[in-house]
Amino acid sequence: MSDPFSLTGQTALVTGANTGIGQAIALAMARAGARVIAAGRSPCTETVALTGGEFLLLDFADPMAARDVFAARRIDILVNNAGIIRRADSLDFTESDWDAVMDVNLKAVFFTAQAFAKAAVDRASGGKIVNIASLLSFQGGIRVPSYTAAKHGVAGVTKLLANEWASKGINVNAIAPGYIETNNTEALRADPVRSAEILSRIPAGRWGQAKDIGEAAVFLASPAAAYVHGTVLAVDGGWLAR
Ligand code: NAP
């Protein structure tokens, strides 16, 4: 009997796979049997070594960077993980910080998904898309206006694409990680007041680890999630339940 959580025989492209959550997703997918393409603007040397996969240079400073990737070869799973954050008071927030975050965190997510889906539809192969959303897909946050706008957008686009593509055999879902110990949250963890405030309201009583997200991504990319469409799965130690 085949294992419904296995990714054997599948090829997964993970963006931003050199560090943090993207690296953990790449590792978890490789453990589940997938061939991994670790994509990003920086070499994913460690991830490639650990997964036995390959590196693909994709810099979403051009949000259309992946336009030709999926027609060239069959890729079954797309994880839109690459993301940046810019922090400043909204009174002072600049247009360049707005545009930089929207380009990588939202525009590239849509157009990479579009390129993936065009190839999947042409091949009638179906596929799985996992977008990395955020608690700030549901909450406002503070001092991160473009990040919050982009991550609310990721949740909306995930649902929209699920509505359009579920009938084409493409599952589009998202994961909303809680507070995870990565580069993205370095500034928060370095601030003793904010760090203690955050920890005190996480029911699980700990910050998340990147591998907590990796296993959830494997589920959404696997045959076990065949009937899961358009969900934004919080993996947050219970934060949103509070
Ligand atoms: P991270 O370690 O900073 O990882 C971000 C990844 O995105 C890195 O690989 C980075 O590459 C890549 N990236 C940034 N700009 C790029 C571009 N222009 N083109 C291609 N790749 C680019 O932080 P992380 O926490 O793992 O973040 C991963 C995702 O999770 C992001 O979408 C983030 O918003 C989301 N998230 C994180 C948390 C958290 O608590 N950590 C919570 C919710 C959501 P470089 O190494 O070259 O910069």
Rg: 17 Å
Q: Can you summarize the main beta sheet?
A: 7 strands, parallel
Structural classification: alpha/beta
Mean pLDDT across every amino acid position: 97
Instruction: Tell me the overall shape.
Output: globular
Strand fraction: 15-25%
Listed once per kind, the bound small molecules are:
NADP nicotinamide-adenine-dinucleotide phosphate
List segments where confidence is low: pLDDT < 50 over at least 5 consecutive residues. none
Instruction: State the helix count.
Output: 8
State the separation between the terminal residues, measured CA to CA.
40 Å
Helix content: 40-55%
The CATH architecture term is: 3-Layer(aba) Sandwich
Write structural notes for this entry:
This protein has 242 residues and is an alpha/beta fold. It has one domain: Rossmann fold, CATH 3.40.50. It contains 8 helices and 7 strands, in the order E-H-E-H-E-H-E-H-E-H-E-H-H-H-E. The chain has a 7-stranded parallel β-sheet, sandwiched between helices. Helix 4 (95-123) packs parallel to helix 5. The longest helix has 29 residues, at 95-123. The protein is globular, with a radius of gyration of 17 Å. The relative contact order is 0.16. The mean pLDDT is 97.
How would you summarize this macromolecular structure in one to three sentences?
The chain has a single domain (11-235), classed as Rossmann fold. It is 41% helix and 15% strand. It has helices at 20-31, 45-51, 69-72, 95-123, 145-165, 186-190, 192-200, 210-221; strands spanning 11-15, 35-40, 54-57, 77-80, 127-132, 170-177, 232-235.
